[in-house]
Amino acid sequence: MWGPFVPGLQLCRLFYTDAVRPLLAEAFPGLRYAAARVGPGSEVLGFDTERSVDHDWGPRLTLFLSPSDLARYGERVTALLSERLPKQIHGWPTHFPPVPGRARVPAGTDGPVAHLVQVTEVGAWCETQLGFDPRPGVTTFDWLATPTQLLAEVTGGAVFSDVLGELTAVRDRLHWYPDDVWRYLLACQWARIGQEEPFVGRTVEVGAEAGSRVLAARLTRDVMRLCLLMARRYPPYGKWLGSAFAALPEASAVAAALDGALTGDATARQAALCTAYEAAGAWQNRLGLAGTVDPTRRWFHDRPYPVIGADRFAAALLGRITDPEIAGLPPVGGIDQYVDSTPVLCQPKLTRALTAAAWRFR
Asked: Where are the domains of the chain?
């Protein structure tokens, strides 16, 4: 490790204020831009640790210029920073030499700095990051075709300066879903639970202990994502899902029950899941997005498997949707509620194509 570890967002802010901003003010007085640390990276979500410094972590920024200024000054800004950035900032190198096929790691240099300052404009950056430009507006299709991880990367992180105002406006616009989109996503998340909640007991009954544990883990993940949605937090991808869920003070009762579902024996497993469902159901009732639903467990028809009847919560939410476009959607949800492939979810053009295909079955 080069210097003492500091949270990445703090380091990036120091990089901007102590190194990048003075150079821009001197070489391009009056240049209007936004400077931010947004996009991919554990520090953007606030989950970086000392382990994170081994790749793609360190002093880095995205500079957003107007399209005309990008054409006029973009290459000159990049060259200026390469030539005049300090070799280190607060003990951390600003040099990240590219190595084909490998992530970029900090290194020392006596020559020009291969920096991680991206110079772009808001529209082009959004098209790459999200697959669309939200400045004219965000459609229902845009919301549902965009993985929550990507929305978290745009709305997370930190903006250090925004004279232009466009980046801040984009982040405000994408801060959270419209209510009917939110209802639809919550309904589809409850529906996922409803599709498998009796199977934890049924698999135990036939002696498939491993299968029961796998189902319990799947349902635990679904409940965690449900709680993040209820808390108005974009669920991140798998590596950070548990960290984001653990940070929800409203989910303490759910979290305790889910721990029991993952560690308990066959009998305790199903009971603990139901305790989690009951706490989540009571939470939904408090949101006021739908009519009140009795959040107590019950038997699965005439079989001895306790369930919550998750479809009841889904139906209550769907019944409150007033937007006819959303009411007519197939009951599959947002892209990452039915696609679970990281290479797919990292490609906005592909997620939009798959969403379009799903919508054709309305």
From this structure: 8-173, 179-329
CA 345 to chain centre: 11
Token pair listed for 214:
């796998």
Closest to 63 measured CA to CA, from 42, 85, 45, 87:
85
> Helix 166-173 vs helix 122-130: angle between axes, to the nearest 10 degrees?
30
d(CA 64, CA 58): 19
pTM equals: 0.94
Which structure tokens are listed for 274?
A: 């139901």
Buried b (16+ CB within 10 A) or exposed e, 187-217: bbbbbbbbebbbbbbbbbeeeeeeebbebbe
- The whole-angstrom distance between residue 64's C-alpha and the CA centroid of its chain comes to 22
Least Cα distance to 261 among 290, 312, 222, 206 occurs for: 222
Identify the architecture of domain 179-329 in CATH. Answer: Up-down Bundle (1.20)
**Residues 227-251 pLDDT 10s:** 999 999 999 999 999 999 999 999 9
